[in-house]
Design goal:
Order of helices and strands of chain B: HHHHHHHHHHHH
Distance between the termini of chain A: 40 Å
Number of domains of chain B: 2
Number of strands of chain A: 0
CATH superfamily of the largest domain in chain B: MetI-like
Helix content of chain B: over 70%
Strand content of chain A: under 5%
Shape of chain B: globular
Shape of chain A: flat
Strand content of chain B: under 5%
Radius of gyration of chain B: 24 Å
CATH topology of the largest domain in chain B: MetI-like fold
CATH topology of the largest domain in chain A: MetI-like fold
CATH class of the largest domain in chain B: Mainly Alpha
Largest sheet of chain B: none
CATH architecture of the largest domain in chain A: Orthogonal Bundle
Radius of gyration of chain A: 31 Å
CATH superfamily of the largest domain in chain A: MetI-like
Oligomer: heterodimer
Number of helices of chain A: 17
Largest sheet of chain A: none
């Protein structure tokens, strides 16, 4: 300290940084007493409060417990994740402390006045404000969204199921055994690929139907010389206005084989024998696609109607002058404009149906059952995961499948948001 | 002449298509309304216009000793309203911070939100189920609301941030020069200008929990705590057909108010969704 002078003042930042290995000392060295003391107290409190959690959690995360009945593997896993989150927050604070000491040291080296107590307080309020107002939402997000995601990722590398269920049994890390089994064991592989195939067919066919019908109806209602547009638009929105779970349950009643209106009233009216809608997988699938079309088209209809009304009329007038036919106008003006402005929303319709659990589960519980596999004939990935979790307690397999499903969804999502305007326009810096 | 003929054919086809669609849309709705007035518990021998129409099923639903329907209705409203209020508060604060401040970690935060928005929050349903069991939040509405609000934050934050970005920053800067504090700028300058997007976020945050089945069915265990989606499913699944007319009455009582509410706010929905789609 005695050498502290103008000549080697350039080393303030190094000294401050070095002293900050213990948070607070660097700030004290920089003569920011209040800041230094509060940093010291904070880190001491941090270590004191979280010492046990960190110790137990990190140990638990590695071993998942050693003695049955005494160590609860899943509790230990939860503590482990909590410990990880605490460590991340701690490291964040630590980096901030190092950065702060370094920066203030630099300022001193450059002989700039370091901020006084009052300025420090103002700075703290100004810089801290965004963190302060974000923290409630962010904390909730960490605990109900991010926490479960980490939990699922870790779970997929364990053997947690009915036979390895705490407290009587311990859960162990098994590496990528679950992933291997899904692709190697016959029953799992067959089921996985048949469910995946149906999920993709379902997503593609049901969504395309509802999009096509929505666009088609919007265009024909929007013709200039059609009367009664208001009532048409209201009725066409109705299936969207009724909560989906209500409509799906109503349809489940209508398609019921013994008393449903489809078999009894409609097919009966035409003298056709009732069809086994709920017991033949192919018929259930057809019914599901029809119902989803009914449920999904109004949204597309409403959106496309909005777009159509905003297309300037002079485009069409110019086309008429040039001698374009109605079909040419549709193909060259209407369709490109509609698709261009609705494309991002149309893609979300596909991802929505990919995970459209309600309709599959509420209509027929994913059934009917199919021999040779442990998923129902109309189960999509998400409903299969649900039944693995809720009825057969195959937690680790369900987690593995969730990982596979998330990889698909995230790939599509990243491809999509790379193309969205806002992502490129956002002043990310 | 052929022009006129073409027009007539085109219009006739149009009206024909519209008529067929009207039948397809209205038939299921008429069927369920008709069923709800049918006497007896099962549907055998019923018709869309019942001969001896009865209000018995509606009365049964309102009788708390026979049916838990009123509880379910109350639970659904409670959960949806609380989710809506909490979401609006948290999302406005978060979106305001992202839109108006440049702080360390902002870029990563926005990226995280963008990716989380893509994953439906029930994808982690195993984790939600196990964690709720461990924390004793299973079968509680508090747990349900927390999961809903958390799941709503990423998408709605982006939606609202996109809107706040369009409000000129000069407004808050001049207010700052005039000596307004952070909170004052937020409450008195920015929030009043953001009412349209607040309405959209509020609607989304209300409808999503109301219509949700999957998370509610994982978390809620006792009949008295069910929300409408879980309760109605239970009513149907328990003894299918045996209580179908009661279910029909319950369905009508949900569909009518929600449909009216929805039709009156429909404009906002479309604009909000398209804004969200093209902006974020």
């Amino acid at each position: 300290m005695s050498k502290e002078g103008v000549s080697d003042s350039t080393s303030h930042h190094k000294k401050a940084l070095f002293l900050s290995i213990i948070p607070g000392l660097g700030q004290l060295y920089n003569k920011q007493i209040l800041k230094g003391v509060s940093f010291l107290v904070l880190s001491a409190a941090f270590i004191l409060v979280f010492k046990d959690l960190l110790n137990l959690g990190l140990w638990g995360l590695v071993t998942l417990g050693e003695i049955p009945f005494e160590d609860h593997s899943i509790f230990l896993l939860v503590y482990g994740i909590l410990a990880l989150i605490v460590v991340v927050f701690g490291l964040g604070f630590y980096c901030f402390n190092l950065r702060d000491a370094y920066k203030v040291g630099k300022k001193r080296d450059a002989h700039e006045p370091i901020s006084t107590m009052k300025e420090q307080y103002r700075n703290l309020v100004d810089n801290g404000f965004p963190y302060l107002i974000m923290s409630p939402g962010f904390l909730l997000l960490v605990f109900v969204v991010i926490f479960p995601i980490i939990f699922v990722i870790l779970l997929s590398f364990t053997n947690y199921d009915l036979y390895h269920s705490p407290p009587a049994k311990l859960v162990d890390w098994v590496g990528i055994k679950n992933f291997v089994e899904i692709f190697k064991v016959d029953m799992w592989r067959d089921t996985f690929f048949s469910v995946l195939a149906w999920t993709l067919v379902w997503t593609f066919v049901a969504t395309t139907f509802q999009v096509a019908l929505g666009i088609f109806l919007a265009i024909i209602v929007n013709q200039k010389d059609v009367k009664g547009k208001a009532i048409m638009r209201t009725v066409f929105i109705l299936p969207w206005a009724v909560p989906a779970f209500v409509s799906i349950l109503v349809f489940a009643g209508m398609f019921n084989e013994s008393f449903g209106a489809i078999n009894r009233d409609i097919l009966g009216f035409f003298g056709i024998q009732g069809l086994p809608w709920m017991t033949k997988p192919m018929l259930t699938r057809i019914a599901l696609i029809l119902i989803q079309t009914w449920l999904g088209f109004p949204f597309i209809f409403a959106m496309v109607t909005g777009v159509l009304q905003s297309i300037p009329q002079d485009l069409y007038e110019a086309a008429t002058v040039d001698g374009a036919s109605n079909f040419q106008k549709f193909k060259k003006i209407t369709l490109p404009l509609v698709l261009y402005s609705t494309a991002p929303v149309l893609i979300t319709q596909y991802t929505f149906n990919f995970n459209n659990f309600s309709i599959i589960y509420l209509f027929n519980g994913g059934g009917p059952a199919v021999s040779g596999q442990n998923a129902g004939g109309t189960d999509i990935l998400i409903s299969w995961i649900y039944s693995l979790t809720m009825t057969s307690a195959q937690y680790s397999k369900a987690a593995t499948l969730t990982m596979l499903l998330s990889i698909i969804v995230i790939t599509v999502a990243i491809w999509q948001f790379k193309r969205t305007k806002s992502f490129q326009e956002e002043d990310m810096m | 002449m052929s022009m006129k003929r073409q027009k007539i054919i085109r219009l006739t086809l149009t009206y024909l298509v519209v008529f067929v669609m009207f039948v397809i849309i209205l038939y299921p709705l008429a069927w369920i309304v008709g069923s709800s007035f049918n006497p007896g518990q099962s549907l055998s021998g019923s018709s869309i216009i019942p001969k001896n129409a009865t209000l018995a099923h509606y009365k049964e639903l309102f009788d708390t000793s026979k049916s838990k329907y009123l509880y379910w209705y109350w639970n659904s409203l409670k959960v949806s309203v609380l989710t809506m209020v909490s979401t609006v508060i948290l999302v406005s604060l978060t979106a305001y911070a992202f839109s108006r401040y440049r702080f360390f970690g902002r870029k990563n935060g926005l990226m995280t939100f963008l990716i989380l928005q893509m994953i439906p929050n029930f994808a982690a349903l195993i984790a939600i189920y196990i964690l709720a069991t461990l924390t004793h939040l299973i079968d509680s509405h508090l747990g349900l609301i927390l999961v809903y609000v958390g799941g709503q934050i990423p998408m709605n934050t982006w939606l609202m941030k996109g809107y706040l970005d369009t409000i000129p920053k000069e407004l808050d800067e001049s207010a700052k020069i005039d000596g307004a504090g952070h909170l004052r700028i937020f409450f008195q300058i920015v929030m009043p200008l953001a009412t349209p997007i607040i309405a959209v976020v509020a609607l989304f945050a209300f409808i999503a929990p109301f219509a949700d089945f999957i998370i509610a069915s994982i978390l809620l265990r006792t009949e008295k705590n069910y929300t409408l989606a879980v309760g109605l499913y239970d009513l149907v699944a328990k003894q299918f057909g045996a209580e179908f007319t009661t279910f029909a009455a319950g369905a009508v009582l949900i569909a009518v108010p929600i449909a009216i509410l929805f039709l009156s706010f429909q404009r906002y929905f479309v604009s909000g969704l398209t804004a969200g789609g093209t902006k974020g």
